[in-house]
Amino acid sequence: MTPYSRPASLPETLFLLAQGQPLLLAGGTDVYPATQAQWLTRPVIDISAVPELHGITRGPDGLRIGAGTTWAAIAAAALPPACNALQQAAQEVGGRQIQNAGTIGGNLCNASPAADGVPPLLVLDAVIELASPRGLRRVALADFLTGPRQTLRAADEVMVAVIVPDAALSGASHFVKLGARAYLVISIAMVAVRLLVVAGRVQQAALAVGACSAVARRLPGAEQALLGLAPQETAAAIDAAQVAAALAPLDDLRATAVYRAEAAAELLRRALATLAQDHAG
Amino acid sequence: MTDTLFPAATGTMGQPERRYEAREKVTGSAAYASDVKLARTAHAYLVTSSIGRGRLQSFDLTAARALPGVIDILTHETIGDEIRQTPSIYGGGYMADTLRPLGSAEIAHWGQPVAMVVAETYEAAREAANLVVVSYAAEVAPVAGMGSSVATGQALDPMGFAVGDFDTAYRTANVTVDANYTTPAQHQNPMELFATQCVWEAGRLTVHEPSQYVNNVKFGLAAQLGLDPSRIRVISTYVGGAFGAKGFLTHRTALVAVAARRIGRPVKLVPTRAQGFTVSGYRAETRHHVQLAATQDGRLTALRHEGWEVTSRADTVAMGAVSMTARLYACPNITARVNVVAADRSTPGFMRAPGEMPYAFAMETALDELAHKLQMDPVALRRVNDTQTEPVGGLPYTSRSLMLCFDTAAAAFGWQGRPSEPATMRDGDWQVGWGCATAFYPTHAGNSAARVRLSADGRVHVESAGHELGQGMYTMMAQVAAEELGVPIAQVTVALGDTDLPPAVVAGGSSSTASVAPAIMAACDAIRRRLGIATGVPADVMPAMEASGLGTIEEFTEVRAHGTAPDSLRGLYRGMALPAGGVHLPDRVQFALGAQFVEVRVHRRTREIRVPRVIGAFAAGRIINPRTAHGQLVGGMIWGIGSALHEHSEIDTRNASYINANLADYLVPVNADVADVQAIMVEEEDRLVNRAGVKGVGEIGVVGVAAAISNAIFHATGIRVRDLPIRIEHLM
Fold first, then answer.
1. Averaged over B207-214, what is the pLDDT?
2. Where is the FAD-binding PCMH-type domain (chain A) (predicted)?
């Protein structure tokens, strides 16, 4: 039988983590399908009852989302318009049952190139807080994800929270996903965009694309090109070649690289056009 | 209460009666096979082959046997000769395929059961199954499917036919089409898994299993186990979707029965979703070559349809629906041929509209190609070639309302004014296209029996071993008895799905209602005769029942379906009541027909395909319950969207395994893919097909949708896609 423990506090979690190479279990929505036909090879620490990992709070350093917060809770939270993309993504991670169980921390630590949570958090300049016996540390999400299924999380670390700095909570954002069917599907490509519009002109722009490279990416070049434009002009300013160059899409079962680059550009245009509509309205 | 879906319905039959077992289903009290609680149940788990072709060398069962809770492990080495070799349904027997369960060390396909662990709990059985170490020998690269070549195909001569002189007519024609089409392997994936529970009591075996034919399971199991059939009872009160996958006896049932006998306890097996991909049959991949020739005004002068279908090495299974595609339109010169390509795969079976779906995709797409070449409206092309006589044998259709369906659906769709040139309709960044296709399904019926009991208190009880697959059988059979005896439907109870009841046809070939309703009508007639009431006219039997002084009248009747052999009624009592009709009658052909109209949108840049509208009109004889028929038709049309755009069992050629054997990766349309789907039921009276006048609507809804979508995509983009499923990359 696989050892299983369900700690009730963060210190207890860290103590157990230091005992070996356990498997951290949060919502179980990635662990379960990956292991259901076999037995678990490592001790399991179920962190779903650790109170320090739960809740969404606004503090001096910005918006703090506990790593154990479910997608359903994120979708239902009262968040500023800058988090629209995150809340839209929260409603497209699997189906409702997955959203009720799956957590934001699990999505990030699982580090799938097609993780729906990543692009919305990249446009929010999200920072990851990790705890270990050595204390707390913070890492930018863009640095935290190092490759497919690879992160900077050390074996004895647990992700505590995702922090969105105040500066990134301005403006409004939008998320668009493309798959082989309209819902309940792994992304071929997905994008998140956030614009801060002041006096009818784009003052800040953040664009991120997922499932089109080993790790989801921000597109600084394309962002730069949007500054100073009216929101209605932004969609047309997306240059497909520039987007393709900024990504390194893969050929796989779901789509070809060439298609992904093209689709990413189109999704960016759609997301920007939707945001522009909101400004027009 | 007015019904929003069917405000105009009148009459007892023809009423959108609410589902007989609705309360049980929505409250969870309906017990499906795996819900039945049996005391001291042991749990079984299958170990299946991970190679595609070869031989079992040895098992190491040490770790599995040592696991606490493990009771027994069945392998071909431990099971002995408990299960006899019996023929498949294609060889006059009962089995879905000819492989003997755990019959030898030979591995014929990936996913073949090689062992079954029995334990105190499901979890222990599963863990032990994963501890079974299987060693293989003589592993060779399997033939995974059709591959790129059909040269290895074997012609099935009895399925081929020809009339006139195709070659000359084709060679000398004004306008021709010559194209190849393919459809992929697909799996039914019913929500309810392939559960089986077996319990022995005093030498009698009871089987709880979702089945489309309980008597097939009973008599097949009797042959496999060498038992007197009277000692076996099979119960299938509710079935959570079947779609052909639960039609005939599979390997698992005998294994569970043997395990239960060995350990003297009930045994329950629920194969996983992934194992379900090889536990039962599926729709095999097909390839088609269609050649059409026509005059300038669109009259067909030559038609050739050749199909190739994948089958297993053990069984030659082909759906061969050229027998239908060649009979739909008037044409003097026809050649049709069917071939099979044997692969190292499990034996294919029947999946909703088994041959009709893929063969219609080929023929109805080819007709659209012809219409485009002729610069002719696709509806007009069907009209020019409409016929009341099938062109191969010159036999009459019992009734044929195809053009009425086309006109009804076209009007509802707003087809008029459609530009004939492709890639001319736009809505912003979306290219818009409209397409249509014929839907058809042969009208079948099989021998069936029923018992009807009328009590002095006005209650009516109907019994038949027909099957409730979710299609509404309980409800419809209650309606039939209520109308025939003139009693309110609330006073009618119905029992189905049990071999202790009067036997009925397999619930396949869209034949259930057409077969069982006439048997119930005949039993009601017998009751009316006992009471001295004329038959064939509406009447309330209760005054005569009161006057008779009788407590109960019970009548058992058996009805032989048109086209079955005179001695075939005996087969009804041996689990061999199979559907007859369609194109296999000496005097006529019988079809339900319909027309499918589709709008698609293809995005200019991403090439996403959306299907905002599907409208079908169907003429299928009498509709006993428009609510359940509507569910069947709309459900079928949604399957059609899936067959066009999503469904595809992907095969790893290295070991001929299924890559996407789960519902996350085996894509079917979700609600967000299904916008506006309308099924219109066109009135049609056909007194020839069967006494109930029913043609059946279980399968026709899926037929033609894929072609209509492919035709609409051509109309939207100018790109002709001849391979299913149609994906984004086809439209780049």
1. 98
2. 1-169
Count CB-CB contacts under 10 A for residue A132: 16
Of B27-31, B35-39, B367-371, B615-619, minimum mean pLDDT range: B27-31
Domain B445-580 CATH (choose: 3.30.365.10, 2.60.120.10, 3.40.50.150, 3.40.50.2300)? 3.30.365.10
pTM above 0.90, yes or no: yes
Burial class (CB in 10 A: 0-12, 13-18, 19+), B364: buried
**Cα separations in angstroms, B136 against A38, B125, B313, B657:** 20, 22, 20, 16
The pLDDT tens digits for A102-146 are 999 999 999 999 999 999 999 999 999 999 999 999 999 999 999
Residues 122-181 of A with CB under 8 A from B: 178, 180-181
The closest alpha carbon to A273, from B519, B428, B242, belongs to B428
Second-level CATH architecture of B33-140+192-279: 2-Layer Sandwich (3.30)
Closest Cα in chain A to B607: A263
Active site residue B699: yes
Q: Using one digit for the tens of pLDDT, what is the confidence trace for B115-141?
A: 999 999 999 999 999 999 999 998 899
- Of B504, B544, B509, B507, nearest in space to B522 by CA: B504
Task: Say how far apart CA A269 and CA A242 lie, in whole Å.
Answer: 13
Closest chain A C-alpha to B670 CA, distance in angstroms: 6
Task: State the burial class of residue B152 (Cβ atoms within 10 Å of its Cβ: 0-12, 13-18, 19+).
Answer: middle
Question: Could you give the ipTM of this predicted complex?
Answer: 0.84
Q: Do B673 and A181 touch (CB under 8 A)?
A: yes
3-class DSSP state for residue B397? strand
- Residue A216 structure tokens: 């989801």
